[in-house]
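user: Please supply your own:

assistant:
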Amino acid sequence: MKKSTVFKAGTIIVMVLLYFTFEPIQQNTKQALFIMENLDQGLLEGYIDSFGSFSTIASSLLMVFQSVVAQLPRDILVIANAELFGFSKGVLISWTASLVAASACFWIARAYGRKASEKLISRFKLERVGGVFEKYGKHLVLMARLIPSLPFDLVSYASGLTSMRYRSFLIGTAIGQLPMILIHSYFKEAFTGNAKVITSGILFALAAIVAIFLSRTILEEKTLKNFQNKGDEKSA
């Protein structure tokens, strides 16, 4: 049996055993799901704060759990971190936890493939973005992270299903998610109405600037590749 197969099976078995063996894990998982589904800001902050000195770890694990399993808006978690830990520490926790969450989705897709990914996120969504990410993935991650309407987890799973290097994915995610985290951490609210329109407009404008830059980069890469191919043909 291949080592990769043993690793995959072992990981699943360990996670299942942990869940069914330890009742506190079951209770906290169910409670976390309830809170995330109801999107109750006050309840979420109280839940995280109840872990005391381990609250930063609890918040980070909740971010990963939300991305991999629940796939719900991250805004309330980012705001909760800013409220509980202050702006600077809250931003750092949200940013770091988001990177870990994105990496978890990326490696689940990379290790277990499309069938497993489709059980965690819709097949229709993956098919819609799959082809584009396969072709331009390393260039699109940064821009995709800036677009508010594009699900965070979808980008991570779709990237993991391509041949994209993890380093390219991580850099694009690290830079692209920062504006949203900074905005929500500073204002400490989930925007609605005009505020949401303005915030989305700013992020879309940033995405447009990145898109222009990336289009130029892709064009330059294609031009260089064409010149190299012509040179190879002449030398042959």
Notes: The chain has one domain: 3-235. The chain has eleven helices and no strands. The chain has a mean pLDDT of 75. Residues 3-235 form one domain.
